[in-house]
Amino acid sequence: MHLIETNTERMDEQLISRCLKNDRRAQQQLYDKYAPTMMTVCLRYVKDKQVAQDILQDGFVKMFAKIHTYSGLGSFTGWMKKIFVNTALEFLRQNDVLKYGTNIDDAYDLANKEETIVEKISADELMKCITELPDGFRTVFNMFAIEGYSHAEIAEKLGIQEGTSRSQYARARIILQQKILKLM
After folding, report:
1. Residues spanned by the domain of 168
2. Which string of DSSP letters, residue by residue, matches 48-116?
3. 86 and 118 share one domain
4. pTM of the prediction?
5. pLDDT tens figures, 19-77
6. Of 73, 94, 115, which residue sits at a domain end?
7. Contact by Cβ (8 Å): 158, 101
8. How far is the C-alpha of 24 from the C-alpha of 179, rounded, in Å?
9. Which of 33, 63, 74, 167 is deepest in the core (most CB within 10 A)?
10. Same domain? 76 vs 113
11. How many separate domains does the chain show?
Protein backbone atom coordinates (compact mmCIF):
# COMPACT_ATOMS: atom_id res chain seq x y z
CA MET A 1 0.00 0.00 0.00
CA HIS A 2 2.80 2.42 0.89
CA LEU A 3 4.47 1.75 -2.48
CA ILE A 4 1.24 2.68 -4.29
CA GLU A 5 0.97 5.91 -2.30
CA THR A 6 4.58 6.77 -3.11
CA ASN A 7 4.05 6.12 -6.83
CA THR A 8 0.88 8.22 -6.83
CA GLU A 9 2.66 11.03 -5.00
CA ARG A 10 5.58 10.85 -7.43
CA MET A 11 3.21 10.98 -10.42
CA ASP A 12 1.41 13.96 -8.87
CA GLU A 13 4.74 15.72 -8.28
CA GLN A 14 5.63 15.26 -11.94
CA LEU A 15 2.25 16.51 -13.11
CA ILE A 16 2.43 19.51 -10.77
CA SER A 17 5.91 20.34 -12.03
CA ARG A 18 4.65 20.23 -15.62
CA CYS A 19 1.56 22.29 -14.70
CA LEU A 20 3.85 24.97 -13.27
CA LYS A 21 5.21 25.28 -16.82
CA ASN A 22 1.64 25.61 -18.19
CA ASP A 23 1.78 22.16 -19.80
CA ARG A 24 -1.81 21.68 -21.05
CA ARG A 25 -1.49 17.90 -21.25
CA ALA A 26 -0.42 17.73 -17.61
CA GLN A 27 -3.35 19.97 -16.67
CA GLN A 28 -5.70 17.64 -18.54
CA GLN A 29 -4.20 14.63 -16.78
CA LEU A 30 -4.69 16.24 -13.36
CA TYR A 31 -8.22 17.19 -14.33
CA ASP A 32 -9.01 13.65 -15.51
CA LYS A 33 -7.53 12.16 -12.35
CA TYR A 34 -9.20 14.44 -9.81
CA ALA A 35 -12.43 15.66 -11.46
CA PRO A 36 -14.59 12.78 -10.17
CA THR A 37 -13.40 13.29 -6.58
CA MET A 38 -13.80 17.07 -6.72
CA MET A 39 -17.22 16.72 -8.39
CA THR A 40 -18.31 14.72 -5.34
CA VAL A 41 -17.15 17.61 -3.15
CA CYS A 42 -19.09 20.10 -5.30
CA LEU A 43 -22.24 17.98 -5.17
CA ARG A 44 -22.12 17.98 -1.39
CA TYR A 45 -22.75 21.74 -1.52
CA VAL A 46 -25.17 22.13 -4.44
CA LYS A 47 -27.94 19.82 -5.62
CA ASP A 48 -27.97 20.76 -9.28
CA LYS A 49 -25.42 18.79 -11.29
CA GLN A 50 -24.99 21.58 -13.84
CA VAL A 51 -24.24 24.09 -11.11
CA ALA A 52 -21.84 21.59 -9.51
CA GLN A 53 -20.16 21.18 -12.91
CA ASP A 54 -19.76 24.97 -13.14
CA ILE A 55 -18.24 25.05 -9.66
CA LEU A 56 -15.95 22.18 -10.66
CA GLN A 57 -14.71 24.13 -13.68
CA ASP A 58 -14.22 27.30 -11.62
CA GLY A 59 -12.37 25.28 -9.01
CA PHE A 60 -9.97 23.85 -11.56
CA VAL A 61 -9.34 27.29 -13.05
CA LYS A 62 -8.51 28.57 -9.55
CA MET A 63 -6.46 25.49 -8.74
CA PHE A 64 -4.31 25.87 -11.86
CA ALA A 65 -3.91 29.59 -11.19
CA LYS A 66 -2.77 28.86 -7.62
CA ILE A 67 -0.82 25.67 -8.19
CA HIS A 68 2.41 27.58 -7.63
CA THR A 69 1.30 28.08 -3.99
CA TYR A 70 1.20 24.34 -3.26
CA SER A 71 4.21 23.79 -1.03
CA GLY A 72 4.45 20.04 -1.44
CA LEU A 73 3.82 19.59 2.27
CA GLY A 74 0.72 17.64 3.06
CA SER A 75 -1.70 15.99 0.71
CA PHE A 76 -2.15 17.50 -2.75
CA THR A 77 -5.71 16.17 -2.72
CA GLY A 78 -6.38 17.93 0.58
CA TRP A 79 -4.93 21.17 -0.80
CA MET A 80 -7.15 20.89 -3.88
CA LYS A 81 -10.21 20.02 -1.81
CA LYS A 82 -9.90 23.30 0.12
CA ILE A 83 -9.98 25.21 -3.17
CA PHE A 84 -13.13 23.39 -4.30
CA VAL A 85 -14.89 23.81 -0.95
CA ASN A 86 -14.06 27.52 -1.00
CA THR A 87 -15.27 27.82 -4.60
CA ALA A 88 -18.57 26.17 -3.66
CA LEU A 89 -18.92 28.41 -0.60
CA GLU A 90 -18.21 31.47 -2.72
CA PHE A 91 -21.02 30.42 -5.07
CA LEU A 92 -23.40 29.92 -2.14
CA ARG A 93 -22.52 33.31 -0.63
CA GLN A 94 -23.00 35.05 -3.96
CA ASN A 95 -26.44 33.48 -4.26
CA ASP A 96 -27.49 34.29 -0.67
CA VAL A 97 -28.16 30.64 0.14
CA LEU A 98 -27.80 31.22 3.87
CA LYS A 99 -29.79 34.43 4.19
CA TYR A 100 -32.72 32.59 5.75
CA GLY A 101 -30.69 31.11 8.60
CA THR A 102 -32.21 30.92 12.02
CA ASN A 103 -30.69 31.41 15.42
CA ILE A 104 -29.79 28.50 17.69
CA ASP A 105 -32.43 29.62 20.22
CA ASP A 106 -35.11 28.59 17.73
CA ALA A 107 -33.64 25.12 17.24
CA TYR A 108 -33.29 23.79 20.78
CA ASP A 109 -36.65 22.04 20.78
CA LEU A 110 -35.70 20.18 17.60
CA ALA A 111 -32.50 18.58 18.87
CA ASN A 112 -33.85 15.92 21.21
CA LYS A 113 -34.06 12.99 18.77
CA GLU A 114 -32.31 9.64 18.89
CA GLU A 115 -28.74 10.11 17.64
CA THR A 116 -27.97 6.55 16.56
CA ILE A 117 -30.44 6.44 13.66
CA VAL A 118 -27.78 7.46 11.13
CA GLU A 119 -25.75 4.38 12.00
CA LYS A 120 -28.49 2.12 10.59
CA ILE A 121 -28.30 3.11 6.90
CA SER A 122 -25.71 2.87 4.15
CA ALA A 123 -23.31 5.67 3.25
CA ASP A 124 -25.01 6.08 -0.15
CA GLU A 125 -28.42 6.46 1.48
CA LEU A 126 -27.00 9.00 3.91
CA MET A 127 -25.32 11.01 1.12
CA LYS A 128 -28.61 11.05 -0.81
CA CYS A 129 -30.39 12.38 2.27
CA ILE A 130 -27.70 15.04 2.76
CA THR A 131 -28.05 16.09 -0.87
CA GLU A 132 -31.77 16.63 -0.34
CA LEU A 133 -31.26 19.07 2.56
CA PRO A 134 -32.06 22.75 1.95
CA ASP A 135 -28.98 24.61 0.73
CA GLY A 136 -28.08 26.41 3.96
CA PHE A 137 -28.55 23.33 6.12
CA ARG A 138 -26.57 21.16 3.67
CA THR A 139 -23.72 23.66 3.51
CA VAL A 140 -23.29 23.94 7.27
CA PHE A 141 -23.75 20.19 7.76
CA ASN A 142 -21.05 19.43 5.17
CA MET A 143 -18.65 21.97 6.60
CA PHE A 144 -19.11 20.84 10.22
CA ALA A 145 -19.73 17.08 9.98
CA ILE A 146 -17.76 16.20 6.85
CA GLU A 147 -15.08 18.87 6.36
CA GLY A 148 -14.41 19.33 10.09
CA TYR A 149 -14.77 23.11 10.36
CA SER A 150 -15.76 24.56 13.74
CA HIS A 151 -18.92 26.66 14.00
CA ALA A 152 -16.73 29.74 14.49
CA GLU A 153 -14.86 28.97 11.26
CA ILE A 154 -18.11 28.32 9.40
CA ALA A 155 -19.55 31.60 10.64
CA GLU A 156 -16.46 33.47 9.47
CA LYS A 157 -16.32 31.78 6.06
CA LEU A 158 -20.03 32.23 5.37
CA GLY A 159 -20.49 35.65 6.94
CA ILE A 160 -23.12 34.43 9.40
CA GLN A 161 -23.44 34.33 13.18
CA GLU A 162 -21.95 31.36 15.01
CA GLY A 163 -25.40 30.69 16.50
CA THR A 164 -26.84 30.53 12.99
CA SER A 165 -24.25 27.90 12.08
CA ARG A 166 -25.16 25.86 15.14
CA SER A 167 -28.87 26.21 14.36
CA GLN A 168 -28.44 25.23 10.71
CA TYR A 169 -26.46 22.17 11.82
CA ALA A 170 -29.03 21.17 14.46
CA ARG A 171 -31.88 21.53 11.98
CA ALA A 172 -29.96 19.61 9.32
CA ARG A 173 -29.47 16.72 11.75
CA ILE A 174 -33.17 16.67 12.60
CA ILE A 175 -34.22 16.70 8.96
CA LEU A 176 -31.70 13.93 8.21
CA GLN A 177 -33.03 11.86 11.08
CA GLN A 178 -36.59 12.29 9.81
CA LYS A 179 -35.56 11.29 6.28
CA ILE A 180 -33.68 8.27 7.60
CA LEU A 181 -36.65 7.16 9.70
CA LYS A 182 -38.73 7.16 6.55
CA LEU A 183 -36.18 4.85 4.91
CA MET A 184 -36.45 2.30 7.70
Report:
1. 104-183
2. -HHHHHHHHHHHHHHHHHHGGG--SSS-HHHHHHHHHHHHHHHHHHHTTTTTT---GGGTGGG--S-SS
3. no
4. 0.69
5. 999 999 999 999 999 999 999 999 988 888 999 999 999 999 999 999 999 988 888 99
6. 94
7. no
8. 45
9. 167
10. no
11. 2
